[in-house]
Write a structure and sequence with these properties.
Order of helices and strands: HEEEEEEHHEEEEEEEEEEEEEEE
Number of domains: 4
CATH architecture of the largest domain: Beta Barrel
Shape: elongated
Helix content: 25-40%
Strand content: 35-45%
């Protein structure tokens, strides 16, 4: 009797446990997800390259006189204007030569003026036949000699002045002193670097493009510029020049970029990343790239029998609190954002967290 009751109870427990398990399986679990509301935006396609910044004008001023440095007037980082004296060399001999040349020029000028006056006076007398031809020719010769002497004196003065001026190292344009290569009392030779001056108004960079990027570069394209040393800032530029031929050794094309952003923090020699904008699509639907679920399908060509892998992209959207799988067509990819050309509409809720675990039609719970 007890044995029958025990068997009956065991059978009822098994039936109840099976029903409970089926009931639990039929109760669908909601997956917590985060969403991104699709909206229209702008996205660009870029050519990426790296390079160093240089000043639009970058000049090293060399010495023109072999003499001792007497005075250094500027320091690195100092702003200068065109023809400002940056350093001076010992010039006692040049100064004395200039004084002598100036005196010779003054004397020659006075003699030339006197000869001119004599010639005018004698010309009048000659026209009145008061003097002979020989006398007139003699006065004219003296005038021409005085003029020649004056011309030589002027040349001598200009040479002496140039030698004197060469003892002063001057700025070739408005800019900033980048470096000073000499010290006071140092003896230097002709052609020795003295001061480096950079243009403070414009900066540029030269980059090299290779492969398929070469065909997409055009003069006038907008350039986005980033520097590792200035991670929180972005600068703008423009493609200014493109070489007409590709370098035979490196197989690269040199492109010159001019900065449109003027910022004193941008220094010559800084290393940066340059993004040349080749396409820009406005009013596009853009989503985070990681929302995509790429899949590769293999299709067989019936004629050749060859396998052709085809990559497709899917993502999940939320409709009526359920996940719905959508196939999409993609466009420009840039900086973690991707353009969707087909498969979405403005306002769709794209799952960006939880998309790898959710299933088609599964209930979802949207979290912040």
């Amino acid at each position: 009797m007890y044995k029958k009751i025990f068997l009956l109870m065991s059978f009822m427990i098994l039936i109840f446990s099976g029903c409970t398990k089926k009931t639990e399986e039929n109760v669908e679990k909601s997956v917590p997800v985060k969403i991104y509301k699709v909206k229209s935006g702008s996205i660009s396609k870029y050519i990426r390259a790296t390079g160093s910044v240089t000043a639009d004008e970058d000049v090293i001023v060399y010495s023109k006189v072999a003499e001792r440095i007497e005075n250094i007037i500027v320091k690195p980082g100092q702003k200068v204007v065109k023809d400002q004296v940056l350093a001076s060399q010992k010039n006692d001999i040049q100064k004395q030569s200039l004084k002598i040349a100036d005196a010779v020029l003054s004397t020659a000028g006075a003699q030339s003026k006197l000869a001119e006056q004599d010639f005018e006076r004698m010309s009048k007398l000659y026209s009145e036949k008061a003097i002979s031809v020989q006398q007139f020719d003699q006065v004219r010769t003296l005038k021409e000699t005085a003029e020649h002497t004056l011309s030589q004196a002027k040349s001598g003065y200009e040479q002496a002045k140039e030698q004197y001026e060469n003892s002063f190292v001057k700025a070739p344009f408005d800019g900033v002193v980048a470096a000073v290569y000499v010290e006071e009392s140092q003896m230097i030779n002709i052609g020795q670097p003295v001061v480096q001056v950079l243009s403070s108004s414009k900066m540029k960079a030269k980059i090299n493009l290779t492969g398929e990027d070469i065909q997409y570069a055009k003069v006038g394209q907008k350039v986005l510029i980033k520097f590792p040393s200035l991670p929180d800032d972005k600068f703008t530029g423009r493609v200014e020049k493109i070489n007409t031929s590709i370098d035979r050794l490196s197989k690269s094309l040199e492109v010159e970029i001019t900065f449109l952003t003027k910022d004193n923090r941008i220094k010559s020699g800084m290393f940066g990343e340059f993004l040349i904008e080749t396409q820009n699509h406005s009013n596009s639907l853009v989503v985070p790239e990681y929302a995509l679920l790429p899949q590769t399908e293999v299709k067989i060509n019936r004629e050749t029998g060859l396998q052709n892998p085809v990559k497709k992209y899917y993502l999940f959207i939320v409709e009526n609190n359920s996940a719905k799988l959508k196939e999409v067509k993609t466009g420009i990819l840039n900086d973690g954002q991707i353009e969707i050309n087909y498969g979405l509409k403005n306002g769709d809720s794209v799952i960006i967290v939880g998309q790898n675990i959710v299933k088609e039609g599964q209930s979802v719970n949207i979290i912040d």
